[in-house]
Specification:
- This protein has a domain of 50 residues.
- Helix content is 44%, strand content 0%.
- It has three helices and no strands.
- Helix 1 packs across helix 2.
Length: 80
């Protein structure tokens, strides 16, 4: 396992971290480990703005439209 030292951490951040660790019933070191692990985990796939907006306003109802099938790319026009 690797070790990491964090220098220059603001005192206010340290106090918040201490309270957060206490609320979760673990040491500050274990809390930092959990935060870093969650930050780098790819648990949720990236979502684009459209998906986020759909989820946000889904409770309001709305119109759900079926998208038409895409047509194949047409040949280029020859102007010669």
């Amino acid at each position: 396992m690797a070790d990491i030292s964090i220098r220059g951490l603001d005192d206010g951040v340290k106090q918040k971290l201490r309270r957060r660790a206490a609320a979760h019933g673990r040491s500050m070191e274990a809390e930092v480990r959990a935060i870093i692990t969650m930050a780098v985990a790819d648990e949720q796939p990236r979502r684009d703005l459209f998906d986020v907006l759909l989820d946000r306003f889904d409770d309001l109802g709305g119109v759900h439209l079926e998208l038409p099938a895409r047509e194949p790319i047409r040949d280029r026009l020859d102007f010669n």
